[in-house]
Amino acid sequence: MAGAIASRMSFSSLKRKQPKTFTVRIVTMDAEMEFNCEMKWKGKDLFDLVCRTLGLRETWFFGLQYTIKDTVAWLKMDKKVLDHDVSKEEPVTFHFLAKFYPENAEEELVQESTQHLFFLQYGDYDPSLHKLGFLAQEELLPKRVINLYQMTPEMWEERITAWYAGHRGRARDEAEMEYLKIAQDLEMYGVNYFAIRNKKGTELLLGVDALGLHIYDPENRLTPKISFPWNEIRNISYSDKEFTIKPLDKKIDVFKFNSSKLRVNKLILQLCIGNHDLFMRRRKADSLEVQQMKAQAREEKARKQMERQRLAREKQMREEAERSRDELERRLLQMKEEATMANEALMRSEETADLLAEKAQITEEEAKLLAQKAAEAEQEMQRIKATAIRTEEEKRLMEQKVLEAEVLALKMAEESERRAKEADQLKQDLQEAREAERRAKQKLLEIATKPTYLPVNPIPAPMPPDIPSFNLIGDSLSFDFKDTDMKRLSMEIEKEKVEYMEKSKHLQEQLNELKTEIEALKLKERETALDILHNENSDRGGTSSKHNTIKKPQAQGRRPICI
């Protein structure tokens, strides 16, 4: 009895210690999250929690993926999380990925967050940040594509940067949508491939996508040998490893194939059911939830457009104000330089005038001194004549002295005359220097009193202390943004849609120009089989719409399937 009670107590204790929650790690394209989940949670409980955390409403495109022995599998919504064949080691890891792809991304992807999950890399061009070499660490192109053309990495970077700069200012959601529109026209867009064998044992590939089921040659994943659109399939089923596709037209033979593993058939059937449901859903009227989301998306788009226009106007006004400020600073700097030059010219004129005046005074004094010496020489000559000795010798000597005195007097007179002329010239130079000084002062006065005409609303700049101040007067600018009625909003949305279509068309033309431009540099000998097949499809117009791939086999008639 006591043993039984002790046994029951031990069992109860173990039951209480058993954990009631487990940890799950969710990996998205740009983040990781961890959640504590209850042991009884089903796949839908965990999936709804992740979608609420991401703020996602278009949940039907996504799923939680995990791996079983190198085979991809998706979490089932109606099955407990821990009942799946997943690792029991915590945290249990799932990848949040796109499980189904839209036929037309622009029409079906309503929310911006949904678009962003399909495309997760973009930013606007900034010349101050995106300098030479900024793409060196980015793997924007596969090595196979780089080796296919006679272009160096520098040439690729130059062209990509030029295109990047050419689309500066484009909103992120618009850029991402343009990218998705290009991607959705590629042959392998949204296709899940599986290795299969037909009844004869021939190895083939089964492709499952948003449009239907496609059978490929293993060497050619671009062009299917035959396609089964969803609206022409009556039933899909599997038994063990054998998979059966029954066309709607009973005249067409049933197509059967075998896969490598049973779980692969389960995955194929799961993808078929999901893609078929979305295929039929697209061809019906939108549900109330989708209509609400589209209406909210239009309102949000209109609001963002008005906000972008307001920011663009503010940016333009700021740039104009900055240009006005720069022009004002340039003109003030120019006036300061002119004033400095005028002051220097005035100082030079004053110094020159002082030097000329001093030199003129010295020359005048020298002329007076020479005149005085000439007068003294004349007096000496007269005195010598009066006291001359009457003898011939004395007379001859006296005549010689008189002659020398006359020559000396003549020279002194000439020197005196030259000094007088030089003094007159210096006086004239002094007068000219003072006239130049007067003109320099007048020029400085004109610069100081010159009126300055400034642009409207420049940004005030600090004035140097030695420059005259200027009063900048302008009318203030104000903006009155008023709500508009729904009719005007609808017209603006329609106008924006037309402009957006024109932008898309212009972008497509630019892409075609770029493709034509680099096509001349392609190395034909490096093309792979897939490149050649893609070029053939492009020549036939196969890449413009994936619907062509489906319609071609249909146009050949309802013949029995033979692969």
TrEMBL record:
A 1,2-diacyl-sn-glycero-3-phospho-(1D-myo-inositol) binds at K76, M77, D78, K79, K266. Residues 1-283 form the FERM domain. It holds the Pfam family FERM_C. SUPFAM superfamilies: Moesin tail domain, PH domain-like, Second domain of FERM, Ubiquitin-like. The keyword Cell membrane applies. It is a peripheral membrane protein. Gene3D superfamilies: 1.20.5.450, 1.20.80.10, 1.20.80.60, 6.10.360.10, Phosphatidylinositol 3-kinase Catalytic Subunit, Chain A, domain 1, Pleckstrin-homology domain (PH domain)/Phosphotyrosine-binding domain (PTB). It is found in: Cell membrane; Cell projection. Keywords: Cell membrane, Cell projection, Coiled coil, Membrane. GO terms for cellular component: cell projection; plasma membrane. Residues 303-326, 534-563 are annotated as: Disordered. The keyword Methyltransferase does not apply. Its main location: membrane. It comes from the Eukaryota. PANTHER family: MERLIN/MOESIN/EZRIN/RADIXIN (PTHR23281). This is NF2, moesin-ezrin-radixin like (MERLIN) tumor suppressor.
